[in-house]
Design goal:
CATH class of the largest domain: Mainly Alpha
Distance between the termini: 68 Å
Number of strands: 0
Amino acid sequence: MAARHPAAAPPGAAPRPLRVDAQRNRERLVEAARSAFAEHGVEASLDDIARAAGVGSGTLYRHFPTRTSLLEAVFTESATAVCTLAGRSVTAGADPAGALRDWLHAFAAHVATFRGIGVYLIRTADDDGAAMARTHHEIRDALASLLDRARAAGALRAGMTATDLLVLVNGITLATRQDLAAGTRLLDLVLDGLVPDGPVPPAAGP
């Protein structure tokens, strides 16, 4: 009798969950890639990333067949973390002004660190940039939820939109490059000017 083979997964079916060790390797690769791309740009050595993650190059390519797929994983992870921060702040009922300021600083750090990756992904996208457009909308929606709370609390001048703030943050990070200290100071100056009754407390953290 001929050996029976498992039926192929139907088209569109969700991929099988990774084994625990495989998932751990993937997480190590993304973490190592995040540091490498932030320091060396999108052309960072993939072999060096594999070594930093403590795995072989074959393991890297099993998880991420192309440089673009690894860059997408790193960028998406960072963008998702920024969006999740907004959701947590709303759910926890955090101070509207402070939550908005903290989120904008987190977004600024994301942009400063991963601007080059975003540009690369837009240029190399095989879906006409649809995935990057979805990410942009998710970020804008996350900011809008914080913005609505801040406006309702009277902590922000009327007329300011989520798109306005995203443009401001992008402009500041572009002007200051990767000088996070300078970007933080300029962003605080801008935010102080957008508060009707004076500055709110500075963002938490370093």
